Amino acid sequence: LHPENKLRASILADPAFTRRNTKDNTPSVLNVEMVPGHHVEVAVAAKGGGSENKSKFAMLNPSESIVDWVLEMIPKMGAGWCPPGMLGIGIGGTAEKAMLLAKEALMEPIDITELQARGASNRIEELRLELYEKVNALGIGAQGLGGLTTVLDIKIKDYPTHAANLPVAMIPNCAATRHAHFTLDGSGPVMLDPPSLEDWPKLTYDASKGTRVDLDTITPEDVASWKPGQTLLLNGKLLTGRDAAHKRMVDMLNKGEELPVDLKGRFIYYVGPVDPVRDEVVGPAGPTTATRMDKFTEQVLAQTGLLGMVGKAERGPAAIEAIKKHKSAYLMAVGGSAYLVSKAIKAAKVVGFADLGMEAIYEFTVQDMPVTVAVDSTGESVHKTGPREWQARIGKIPVVVE
Questions:
Q1: Packing angle, helices 243-254 and 294-304, rounded to 10
Q2: Any domain includes 143
Q3: What domain range is 238 assigned to?
């Protein structure tokens, strides 16, 4: 690994118990297929855990509709997989074969616009086009806030299966498709040219569109004034903490022990940053999926005086109820843009649980960090209102009001 191209150490050994960080991102998950020939084809995917968490699998009855199952699952996946992105679908084989097919499908190039232009030539391509239209008609949109585009492509692979079975697997991938494909034929080392930055649009952020917030002086009255969908620019001291830190904090609270940092009146960012290189104060620091912290939210808000949270995607019913009860707020940072988010972080230091590595509690000093009010102090969630509004606008699928 190049010392100036560090990846976040995200792999944990002993997953059911101590969940100890291996510190070097090993071991990988490796699938090998022996085929005729005299060369080796390699496909590498550095896949995000947030999208992998939203994978779905079902043993359908042979008479059931794959389309209906997919359309039922997509809303249940929420926004933690960072739509818009791709869906890999595996059909047939056995349970494990269907999952592998879905993952392999995600390795294929994005070509839905070409398929739309030429038209389908087989049933699988017909299914791709049907699902592409119907999934986008759900109105889930970018980051789950509502919009026209939920998927950028749908890839499908199938395999013969037992007469009694219809295994179907679906694995999403966010727009950050970190893939490398190369072939070894014995002629020498493989050299991969990095993509040209000229192929990407020039993006600038207009800070005048957001309301500046000083986290060092913020009050409950300030939080109560925020409206769902409002853009804020965070400034000042922002704490971090995700799964391991929350579990340890709750264990300490249950024992009556004092936490390493006072959370009263503070905001906490659900993030595990990458180590810095060169002159960086912190490496890429994008938000992690907030629903994993839902089960801790009521206790942490009630016992620590924490004022608000920042994360990725939606919050579940229990967390929303806790936010409403304690007049808190949940702010959504943009998933899939960890490097850009880190540019708003001007200083970083570990203030608790240093042994947890990237899951330690940091204190960031942020400047104009853009976030969206996703759940306000009354419990209104834009992840519920936004997609419902867009689904009605698109008008292809009936809107179900809860």
A1: 50
A2: yes
A3: 207-386
